[in-house]
Write a structure and sequence with these properties.
Blueprint lengths: L4 E6 L4 E9 L3 E8 L3 E13 L4 E3 L4 E9 L5 E7 L2 E7 L4 E11 L7 E13 L3 H81 L1
Parallel strand pairs: 1-3
Antiparallel strand pairs: 2-10, 3-9, 4-5, 4-8, 4-10, 6-7, 6-9
């Protein structure tokens, strides 16, 4: 039987969980649009329809072929054949659509069974750019050092201003104190002068009376 390829477009999100049905030798593909250097983890579980029990059961003779291809470059990122239940992981090299295909493989030659396949795809974050992070951290460290230097300059300037204010305050207090003492001295001089003049006038008038 020729493989039947069904393309289902999945919107980019954090995770996709779905199930679908396959016949023997049938292939089903999903298109996932991914950014560059994005880690994708997938897990699957396949069960086979049993006519005897009329239920889906695990068959150890059933194999699942997983193939991941970049649609722009046609580079194959994953091509494995695993058991009925397994996982796969890959990292996108370039941004664009990626084809994730799953098909069945039986160890027995004459199998025309019906398969239910559960698929869970988790799209992770992009790989960290270590060099960019180092540059970013170095830039932040340089900015922090500049800020610390500016803060230190501001602290020194504030300390200098406080010292100047303290000096001006001491000078102002000293000047005020001198002004008070100078005023008191002037008052004493005036009082002394007035007292001397009054005594002088008193003697003058007494002398004139005695004559």
């Amino acid at each position: 039987m020729r493989p039947l390829v069904l393309l289902l477009c999945l919107a980019v999100s954090t995770a996709h969980a779905l199930h679908f049905y396959l016949d023997a030798n049938q292939k089903r593909c999903f298109i996932e649009e991914l950014p560059t250097d994005t880690v994708v983890e997938g897990s699957y579980r396949a069960v086979e329809w049993s006519e005897g029990s009329q239920t889906y059961e695990t068959n150890s003779d059933l194999g699942i072929i997983v193939e991941v291809v970049e649609t722009t470059t046609y580079d194959t990122l994953v091509k494995t054949t695993g058991p009925p239940e397994g996982k796969f992981t890959f990292t996108s090299h370039d941004a664009g659509d990626h084809s994730i295909c799953l098909s069945t493989k039986f160890t027995s030659w004459f199998s025309h069974t019906h398969i239910r396949l559960y698929l869970d795809i988790v799209v992770g974050t992009t790989k960290p750019d270590i060099e960019h992070d180092r540059t970013h951290v170095s830039g932040l460290a340089s900015k922090v050092r500049d800020l610390n230097s500016k803060l230190e300059d501001i602290r020194r300037e504030q300390q200098y201003q406080r010292e100047r204010e303290a000096g001006y305050r001491d000078l102002s207090e000293a000047t005020n104190s001198r002004a008070v003492w100078y005023s008191l001295a002037q008052i004493l001089v005036l009082v002394g002068t007035c007292t001397w003049q009054l005594r002088h006038l008193k003697r003058f008038f007494e002398d004139r009376k005695s004559r």
